[in-house]
Amino acid sequence: MANWKIKLSLFLNYFVFAILLNSVGSVILQVQNNYGVSESSASILEAFKDLSIAAVSFLIASYIARIGYKRSMLIGLALVGIACLLMPVVGGFAMTKLLFAATGTSFALIKVSVYSTIGIVTKDKKEHASFMNFIESFFMIGILTGYFIFGAFVDDKNPQSTEWLRVYYLLAGITLVAFLLLLSAPLDESSVQPSDSKNSVEEFKDMIKLAIKPLVLVFIVSVFTYVLIEQSIMSWLPTFNSKVIHLPTTLSLQMASILAASTALGRLAAGFALRRIHWFFVLIGCLVAASVLVLIAIPLAQSTSGEPVTSWANAPLGAFVFPLIGLFIAPIYPAINSVVLSNLPARQHGPMSGLIVIFSALGGTTGSIITGTIFESYGGETAFYFSLVPISLLAISLFFFNRLQNKTESTIEFNSSGSH
Which long-range contacts (CB under 8 A, 24 or more apart) does 277-284 make? Predict the structure, then answer.
């Protein structure tokens, strides 16, 4: 298989950052136990992660090709590896904030580079869409693995124990493997090297011009809203399991993995469905199904027997049903990203990837803070019912995105036929 080594490297990079980025839900629960912070205070960890992603993406996306995709990924892996080694040594809520800031900074370099590299290592739109779905599926597998890794280091008998911090030595080791694999993987970036005639300021202006196109504006709204939904659920599901369904801490983390597993499965299934059915109809159907699931699952989560839950075997039905929302929201993100990227020339993939990363990060922060605030003020059930609002907004946004995309394709076809 052509480019197999760099493709494998991209998968492993995504796997490492899937664990680190989405450990925020596990860590939110642990810092409440260890450091006595409130739900609203703990929700700030999402901001340290996502605002770092947004800021760094904004600064480097327009000229990351000059830095080099491979070099950028190596810098990101080195930075987060050092942060992981410091976490168990220093400890404390302040260090936790710094860890997520370093993780966000590194992921900005990784994600923009990965999305841009996909355009180099794939041949056509179909292969692009397929690889995008597979790599996003592998991201969810990383999240799934992360819940069990963190759960393995938690001491249920002593919730105040900081022994769970040792997990970061393991994560530093995985990061080192990813770094060495990438270092040895060849990547020909000559096709995307910018011309010397443009300076960094002009390249930045080009990214801004790209952002204000109507199709891209509606796409940005769609990405922002989707990630708001996903992160609000993913970051707060362990706390929901612990405080609403009354699961022990380890089980709260482990059962949150159902969301990651269902999301991975949803993206794999979408890879096949999108070959036969137009993406818009698939995604609208998914949003309708997700809304119905919210209305069914939360009452199930409320109707617990009152008996202590000790294992998966006697966990209430609601703990299994609600995370299945991942099946339905999963296809949205890679599908709309692929639609936009595969319709742009390779040289614009860097700036466009930057915009995706920036507004994904802002959506994630917004979703987590809103959910944390509602959770603290009105309870977990109300916080998760609130997801119906952005789900409805996303359906409207996708409707306009589809219309604009169809107009864009029609214009391209007309111009192409008129030139003959």
Answer: 279/335, 279/336, 279/339, 280/398, 280/399, 280/402, 282/331, 282/335, 283/331, 283/332, 283/335, 283/336, 283/398, 284/395, 284/398, 284/399
pLDDT computed for residue 268 by the predictor: 80
Question: Comparing 139-148, 207-216, 256-265, which segment has the lowest mean pLDDT?
Answer: 207-216
- Separation between Cα atoms, residue 131 and residue 203, nearest integer Å: 27
Q: Is 321 exposed, middle or buried (0-12, 13-18, 19+ CB in 10 A)?
A: middle
Query: Is residue 244 over pLDDT 60?
Result: yes
Residue 116 to residue 404: CA distance in whole angstroms:
24
Q: Any residues with CB less than 8 A from the CB of 71 and at least 6 apart, and which?
A: none
Residue corresponding to tokens 């930057």:
354
**3-state secondary structure labels for all residues of 141-156:** HHHHHHHHHHHHCCCC
Average pLDDT for residues 95-118, to the nearest whole number?
88
- CA-based nearest residue to 112, from 336, 329, 359: 359
pTM of the full structure: 0.72
What is the rounded average pLDDT of the residues 212-218?
82
Question: Tens digit of pLDDT for each residue in 351-383?
Answer: 787 788 788 888 888 888 888 888 888 888 888
Cα–Cα distance measured from residue 343 to residue 216, given in angstroms and rounded to the nearest whole number: 11
Alpha-carbon span 59 to 71, nearest angstrom: 16
Query: Would the pLDDT of 412 be above 60?
Result: no
Domains of the chain with CATH codes: 4-187+200-414 (1.20.1250.20)
Which token pair is 255? 């059962």
What are the DSSP calls for 365-408, one per residue? HHHHHHHHHHHHHH-HHHHHHTTHHHHHHHHHHHHHHHHHHHHH
